[in-house]
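Example for tutorial group B:
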């Protein structure tokens, strides 16, 4: 679990630092320079992400595989599937200039929060709670701080962007549902 803990500290910590301490982040960015800051931040985040994947993968066997914090509700899988579909659509909306982005302000973080919440509803293993709980905490912090700072998208919305977001979200959802989850993670959703 050490890799998972280090991943949470590096990935979650770097994102929370950037979100919660904008003044310190900006002064550090100024001191290092834009490119150096982005390089360091990217490397720390990438190292954290790799450690998260390795730590979670390692926890799927041995005594950690049976370490439950809570037993999920039987129907949670269906709620999770809906939340993850919405999450993928919102991730798509975060890259366009549509009405969804204009209305929601921060669709990427909302999508990550939905994705993490869904996984917390359907998986009560300790490692899953730590992993998805970290993603939920970072996403909620970003949503709250963005709203408090008045961060708003400034674009003329186009319906075309929303249509593309929905199509891209559904396609990505299908890839994850029928490909990534059962064959890469060895965790089939549909049985």
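The residue assignment follows.
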């Amino acid at each position: 679990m050490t890799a998972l803990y280090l991943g949470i500290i590096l990935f979650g910590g770097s994102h929370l630092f950037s979100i919660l301490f904008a003044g310190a982040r900006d002064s550090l960015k100024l001191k290092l320079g834009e490119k150096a800051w982005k390089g360091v931040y990217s490397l720390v985040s990438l190292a954290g992400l790799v450690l998260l994947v390795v730590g979670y993968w390692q926890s799927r066997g041995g005594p950690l595989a049976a370490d439950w914090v809570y037993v999920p509700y039987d129907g949670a899988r269906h709620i999770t599937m809906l939340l993850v579909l919405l999450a993928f659509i919102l991730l798509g909306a975060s890259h366009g200039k549509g009405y969804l982005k204009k209305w929601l302000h921060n669709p990427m973080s909302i999508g990550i929060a939905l994705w993490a919440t869904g996984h917390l509803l359907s998986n009560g293993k300790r490692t899953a709670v730590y992993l998805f709980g970290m993603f939920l905490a970072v996403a909620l912090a970003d949503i709250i701080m963005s709203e408090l700072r008045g961060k708003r998208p400034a674009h003329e919305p186009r319906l075309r962007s929303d249509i593309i977001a929905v199509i891209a979200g559904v396609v990505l959802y299908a890839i994850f549902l029928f490909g990534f989850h059962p064959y890469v993670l060895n965790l089939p959703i549909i049985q």
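The mean pLDDT is 93. Compare this with the pattern of hydrophobic and polar residues in the output above.
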